[in-house]
Write a structure and sequence with these properties.
Its cofactor is Mg(2+). The chain has one domain (4-157): HAD superfamily/HAD-like (Rossmann fold, 3-Layer(aba) Sandwich), CATH 3.40.50.1000. Helices cover 37% and strands 16% of the residues. The protein has helices at 32-43, 57-66, 79-89, 106-111, 123-126, 141-157, and strands at residues 4-7, 19-20, 26-27, 47-51, 70-72, 96-99, 114-117, 131-132. The chain has a 6-stranded parallel beta sheet, sandwiched between helices. Helix 1 (32-43) packs parallel to helix 6 (141-157). It is globular.
Length: 162
């Protein structure tokens, strides 16, 4: 059973694009269906976390909006954070799903029990995926991942393997 779903943000929860206005204020676009998928996971008892290589006020705001209390940003070496969260929660790596799309995500994708990559992720990440989403990053990929995790958990709860 997956008990923790951790995801990168840029290129996973977003399409990877970053906009700046004339004052230098950053903005990102989030897909509402991805948010619904996160809420469905949370309702099913799966903890959700953001682990991003860049710091962004937009990411912090989205985490607050979705009720995500595990949100670490500005970390290139992500695996130690992921391992610490699993240890603090008392869960094994097999109970951790990780979603990422690029080089900083490779160690996490290898380590976790269930690695997810958007279909437009980098080839290096796609090779490590247990599941490749049919939707692109920022356009429903996280919702695809959430629904797959829910299905997997339901099947494992019934004694089947997803």
């Amino acid at each position: 059973m997956i008990r923790l779903f951790v995801m990168d943000v840029d290129g996973t929860l977003t399409d990877g694009g970053v906009s700046f206005d004339s004052a230098g204020v950053e903005s990102k676009r989030y897909h509402i269906q991805d948010g619904m998928g996160i809420k469905l996971l949370q309702a099913a008892g799966v903890r959700v976390a953001f682990l991003s290589g860049r710091h962004s006020d937009s990411t912090s705001a989205r985490a607050r909006d979705l009720g995500i209390d595990l949100c670490v940003q500005g970390v290139y070496d992500k695996l130690p954070v992921l391992r610490r969260w699993a240890e603090e929660m008392g869960i094994s790596q097999d109970e951790v799903a990780y979603m990422g799309d690029d080089l900083p995500d490779l160690e996490c994708l290898e380590w976790c029990g269930y690695g997810v990559v958007p279909c437009d992720g980098r080839p290096e990440a796609l090779r490590l995926a247990d599941y490749v989403t049919p939707s692109r990053a920022g356009a429903g990929a996280v919702r695809d991942a959430c629904e797959r995790i829910l299905l997997r958990n339901r099947r494992e709860g019934e004694g089947h393997k997803a």
